[in-house]
């Protein structure tokens, strides 16, 4: 009987340890998700501003900032594709934060010098934009269940992460030409993010 009680105690202890490990992994994944998505968007914003300035757009209004993020996400996707072709896709974990740090350093003076001109006015368009951002963020945290996403985008992204590069996988015919979305999802999949759809949230907001 003593041995049976000892076995039960050990089994409960093992389950508690496993539950604790799972909770810790979930917390770490959430932190990694916030960090990765934040640095990705900041890097995209910086790259997009350079692209727009090269085309002669020096405005700094809300529309130009949105365009800079959209253009920057495309540039980051091309960079990830180039890293994938070279077989060094994992370098993105260092390059993207470095890009975010450079962007913040270049705009530090503007950020510290900025002061609100007065109490900001919120119109109907502003309320609509905020509502779209909230709805997109909430929807993006849900598990991916769409048939198309489960069929090829996520499997291709998983193969990109596992092989650390862009290859052709015969069982995934569409991997010959991965989409930019699949490359942009790799930084989130690498740390095991539970919300891979978060990359789509800012894109939906920008498209709206």
Q: Keyphrases for this structure?
A:
mainly alpha, 9 helices, 208 residues
Summarize the structure.
Helices cover 72% and strands 0% of the residues. It is an all-alpha fold.
Overall description:
The protein is mostly helical and 208 residues long. Helices cover 72% and strands 0% of the residues. The chain is built from nine helices and no strands. The protein has helices spanning 2-54, 62-86, 92-106, 108-113, 124-140, 147-151, 153-163, 180-189, 200-207. Helix 5 runs antiparallel to helix 9 (200-207). The chain is globular. The mean pLDDT is 77.
* CA distance, first residue to last residue: 67 Å
| Averaged pLDDT | 77
> Helical percent range?
over 70%
Outline type:
globular
Please compute the radius of gyration using only Cα atoms. Answer: 21 Å
The low-pLDDT segments are none
In terms of DSSP E residues, the strand content is under 5%
Q: Which class of secondary structure composition applies to the elements?
A: mainly alpha
Structure summary, number of beta strands: 0
Could you state the order of secondary-structure elements as H and E?
HHHHHHHHH
Number of DSSP helical runs: 9
Q: Major beta sheet, specifics?
A: none
């Amino acid at each position: 009987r003593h041995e049976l009680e000892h076995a039960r105690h050990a089994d409960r202890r093992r389950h508690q340890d496993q539950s604790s490990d799972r909770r810790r992994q979930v917390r770490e994944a959430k932190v990694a998700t916030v960090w990765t998505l934040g640095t990705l968007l900041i890097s995209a914003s910086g790259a997009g501003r350079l692209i727009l300035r090269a085309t002669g757009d020096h405005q700094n209004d809300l529309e130009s900032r949105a365009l800079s993020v959209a253009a920057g996400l495309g540039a980051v996707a091309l960079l990830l594709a180039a890293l994938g072709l070279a077989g060094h896709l994992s370098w993105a974990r260092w390059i993207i934060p470095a890009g975010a740090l450079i962007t913040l350093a270049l705009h530090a003076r503007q950020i510290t010098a900025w002061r609100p001109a007065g109490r900001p006015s919120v119109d109907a368009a502003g309320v609509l934009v905020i509502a779209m951002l909230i709805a997109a963020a909430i929807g993006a945290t849900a598990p991916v269940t769409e048939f198309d996403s489960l069929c090829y985008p996520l499997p291709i992204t998983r193969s990109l992460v596992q092989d650390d590069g862009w290859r052709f996988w015969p069982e995934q015919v569409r991997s010959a030409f991965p989409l930019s979305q699949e490359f942009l999802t790799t930084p989130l999949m690498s740390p095991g993010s539970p919300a891979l759809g978060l990359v789509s949230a800012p894109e939906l907001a920008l498209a709206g």
